[in-house]
Design goal:
Blueprint (H helix, E strand, L loop, with lengths): L1 H18 L16 E18 L10 E3 L2 E12 L4 E5 L2 E10 L10 E18 L6 E14 L20 E14 L4 E11 L18 E15 L1
Length: about 230
């Protein structure tokens, strides 16, 4: 997780220093004056789960999550409100895979459940920027989103008794992040880091109320860090 954050920050610092100059040549001087702006983003993510247990039986009974690096890709539509505020719609695809680990189950095949998630995300965000400084401009961004998990298995008749962990297909989240706009000669490049926090319970419990996989879970929520590179 630390490397996921530190590497983009080092890259961001290098790009900012490259753009900083006492008397810079101003690139794309009228770029931010358009009422509508379009672009796309590429990036990567790391997702986790937050569990709300019905009964906390001790740290040795907590569910372990083996996280991996996924990828993001999507489009951007931006509407200018004023010099400092923009409303953004960023539909995108976010893929990630997580493995849940259950300690204490006698059968080795029952101890692991792999959850492959493909989220189609529809966020509506407010971007708040500072005044442009030469060829760069810091910003913060936040808002809400609706996500559809294509790998949820919500409608499956199988559950963990046959090896299928089920999640809800439709979910709600809020997003908060920061980044910097860098104006090159031909396009605007914007690296950013964003936290994504689901507020809707994703769990579809097993049919057996005493299931060792879902019986002690009251709710579970995705949370993640997204690193995006935007081109406009």
């Amino acid at each position: 997780m630390k490397r996921t954050i530190v590497i983009p920050l080092l890259l961001l610092g290098h790009l900012v220093m490259a753009q900083f100059n006492e008397k810079p040549v101003i690139n794309l001087e009228n770029e931010d004056k358009k009422f509508l702006n379009w672009g796309y983003f590429l990036g990567f993510n790391q997702m986790d789960f937050k569990f709300d247990y019905k009964e906390h039986l001790g740290p040795n009974t907590d569910i372990l999550v083996d996280k991996s690096i996924g990828f993001n890709v999507g489009l951007i539509g931006e509407m200018r409100i004023n010099e400092f505020l923009d409303l953004r719609f960023e539909p995108g695809l976010h893929y990630n895979s997580r493995i849940l680990g259950y300690r204490g189950l006698p059968n080795e095949n029952d101890r692991l459940r792999e959850l492959k998630s493909t989220y189609i995300n529809f966020p509506l965000l407010l971007k708040v920027s500072t005044r442009r400084i030469g060829n760069w401009k810091p910003f913060i961004i936040g808002g809400g989103s609706v996500s559809m998990n294509l790998g949820s298995n919500e409608d499956s008749l199988d559950d963990n008794s046959t090896g299928t962990f089920r999640l809800k297909k439709n979910n709600f989240a809020y997003e908060l992040g920061f980044g910097i706009d860098l104006y090159t000669e031909y396009f605007k490049f914007s690296p950013s880091i964003r936290g994504v926090f689901f507020i809707s319970d994703e769990l579809v419990p097993d049919e057996d109320p005493n299931s060792p996989w879902t019986g002690n879970i009251n709710a579970m929520y995705t949370r993640g860090i997204f690193v995006n590179f935007t081109f406009e």
